[in-house]
Design a protein that fits this description.
The chain has 306 residues and is of the alpha/beta class. 51% of the residues lie in helices and 13% in strands. Helix 1 links the parallel strand 1 and strand 2.
Length: 306
């Protein structure tokens, strides 16, 4: 590919997104606070850069995939940040789940330097990112989106253009809020089944074939039943996304009763298990309260790439 891409943020999600670009032949330069995070990518042909500014200087477009709005702001506007290196006509693409107002503020700063901005949060789970099949939600100028469509199609199985900058952040937070609500509900459903004497493997199969099924049941439900809870998504990230949903509800005048209750449930789980705990451990709180676990044979410890 002729387009030179930079990628900053090689966590459990970003490393797979960057890997898809590399597999599809993009000229890729990467950076992370932890250099070891890029070892596999560099071995596969990516170039390493010592700072976000250095990544930007080598790239036509730079992607960020970072855990918090604070991290995004530092990477973009810091002394060695992207805006110090991106040339006029370049593009910054934020694939983080970001605060939409901070995103819009940073996009304005980028525009003043002649740099376009797209938001492109993703949804569907790390296992789908590993296979290049995650869903990508893009907001920003449609012409800029069209020019970078091959980049998004490399990383994602489904790519949606949502509209002006900020709209993708809204729908991304909505999808995550739904997932967390479904996760809590799935744990309660499975616990009811166990306490009611229903075999848990059979209960999982029946729910999957029923009107009560959900994507979360099919994926994270398996990790609950195996006891691994390993979805590569932490309590801190869940709390951040639920906070964003809460803020949007206030701003848009939408009472989020289930969203608010779920935020409180995750707050209690984080207090018990820590911010780095896997988000499906919110169901362990129910297991501990009832005094029994939700284990069943035959379920994987982690999800395979689809």
């Amino acid at each position: 590919m002729d387009m030179k891409i930079g990628f900053v943020g090689l966590g459990s999600l970003g490393v797979h997104l960057a890997g898809s670009l590399l597999r599809d032949g993009f000229d890729l330069t990467v950076h992370d606070l932890h250099e070891e995070a890029g070892t596999g990518l560099v071995a596969a042909g990516a170039a390493w850069a010592g700072s976000p500014a250095e990544v930007a200087a080598r790239s036509d477009a730079v992607i960020t995939c970072l855990p918090s709005p604070e991290a995004v702001t530092q990477v973009v506007t810091g002394a060695d940040g992207l805006l110090a290196g991106l040339r006029r006509g370049g593009t910054w693409i934020d694939m983080s789940t970001n605060d939409l107002h901070e995103l819009q503020r940073l996009a304005t700063l980028a525009a003043e330097k002649g740099v376009a901005c797209l938001e492109a949060p993703v949804t569907g789970g790390v296992h789908r990112a590993a296979a290049g099949q995650i869903t990508v939600l893009v907001g920003g100028d449609e012409e800029i989106f069209d020019a970078h469509r091959p980049v998004f199609e490399s990383m994602g199985g489904k790519v949606f253009y949502i509209g002006p900058l900020g709209r993708a952040s809204v729908i991304k937070v909505i999808t995550n809020m739904l997932a967390f609500i479904h996760l809590v509900a799935d744990g309660e459903a499975l616990m009811l089944a166990k306490q009611g004497g229903v075999d848990l493997k059979l209960a999982w199969d029946v729910i999957k074939a029923s009107s009560g099924n959900s994507f979360v049941h099919e994926t994270e439900g398996q990790l609950i039943l195996s006891g691994s809870y390993k979805i590569d998504f932490t309590m801190d990230l869940a709390r951040k996304d639920l906070y964003f949903a809460h803020q949007m509800g206030r701003e848009f005048g939408v009472p989020l009763e289930l969203g608010g209750l779920t935020e409180q449930i995750f707050a209690r789980a984080r207090a018990l298990y820590g911010g780095d705990a896997q988000s499906p451990m919110v169901v362990k709180m129910l297991e501990d309260a009832v005094g029994t676990d939700l284990r069943a044979p035959g379920f994987p410890d982690e999800l395979e790439p689809e």
